[in-house]
Design brief:
This protein is an alpha+beta fold. It folds into two domains: 5-46, no CATH class; 51-128, no CATH class. Helix content is 24%, strand content 12%. The chain has three helices and three strands. It has helices spanning 15-24, 65-78, 95-101, and strands at 5-9, 34-38, 41-46. Strands 1-2-3 form a three-stranded antiparallel sheet. The longest helix has 14 residues, at 65-78. The relative contact order is 0.11. The mean pLDDT is 89.
């Protein structure tokens, strides 16, 4: 039978053990807020709300580069208390060229973004 897991707040003294365990399993560690333990050993971590996620849309015909700079300024001003900001970007978006020029680094590990709603929306693909 599997033993129970324990999820607790991350502490700075967890850093070395967490990094070693993740690297030994071929993974990296990003912004840990909690560690997952099993049999008194760190076997994972969580990053819960450690990095704000910014989703955006701009009309491709009505928004220009200066408008985009103003938007980035608003985002960064609104989130100035945060150490990091995450902006997912469609590969076809003009922002793919723009974001690196404004200091954003591309996360190069291929991932899929999964979303689950805790609220009932009329059309989950279009929002309200």
């Amino acid at each position: 039978m599997d033993s129970l897991i324990n999820i607790r707040l991350y502490r700075p003294e967890d850093r070395e053990a967490l990094l070693a365990a993740a690297h030994a399993d071929g993974h990296e560690v990003y912004f840990p807020t909690h560690v997952i333990e099993k049999n008194n050993e760190i076997v994972g971590y969580l990053s819960l709300n450690a990095v704000p996620l910014v989703l955006s849309w701009q009309d491709s015909k009505k928004m220009g580069p200066s408008d985009s700079l103003k938007e980035i300024g608003f985002i960064e001003g609104s989130l100035q208390h945060c150490a990091f900001i995450c902006i997912p970007c469609d590969p076809e978006s003009p922002y793919m060229r723009f974001l690196p020029k404004t200091g954003y680094a591309k996360y190069t590990v291929p991932v899929e973004l999964f979303i689950k709603s805790n609220v009932q929306l009329a059309d989950k693909t279009k929002g309200d």
